[in-house]
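Recall from the previous lesson that a structure prediction takes nothing but the amino acid sequence as input. Here we apply that procedure to Transport protein, tolQ from Chondromyces crocatus. The sequence below is the only information supplied.
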Amino acid sequence: MALQNAPEEALAVPIKLDAVSLVLHSSGPVFLVVWSLIAAAVLVWVITVLKLIQVARLSATQARFEKESAHAHTQDALYSLAQRHPDAPGGRVVLELSRRGGNAKLLESVAKRALVVETQRASVFMPTLASIASASPFIGLFGTVYGIMDAFLRIGQQKSASLPVVAPAIGEALIATAIGLFAAIPALIAYNALNKRIDDLLSGVEASADGWVAIASEGTLAAEPAPAGGAFPPPQRETAPLPLRQVTTNRPPPPPGQGR
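The prediction returns the following tokens.
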């Protein structure tokens, strides 16, 4: 009788089915998937807060630089303004123009390269948000599939489909999916919102870069030395061609008898 009552007593033991207990006591692969998704969800919020602070700071410094650069009409005034705003994206672009110099075409290439650098600087951690948003649901789905497989294996081992046998494995599977969505949805929303702000910021910098290149190129042209004798060489006078000398053949005839 004692041996027959042992399985019934084991089944009668209450099983905690709350989310925390299922996460802490989940099986090996599901445990790894769940805690990886929890780390990804925390990372999403950390990146979102850091990017919001970065974009807000860049937008504020760029707005101040744009406001003051509207009154800078000379090369020296623009360069001195950029030195006072080295943290603004536009200020860094102008400083790069001041370091290189050259004609308008060269300065335009320098400005494009500086804009690429600013795009890379503003887009730090954005690929991480995109990767978490796209991969987290599939990682959670992997945990779900493994949890359901584990439930069927328990049914085969226990030869019973009762709730105490199936519930823990199915609970682990569903929690893996839920945590995957908990990581992916905020990552997707944060990526779209931050990407819109970054695009607006860089579009404004790119639109103003043409004016900065024009001011820098005008100063470069003005600094070039003029040729000797004035800005342009004096026009040369056209000289008439010299007349060719005509050879005359009117020679006196030789005396008689000399030609013999």
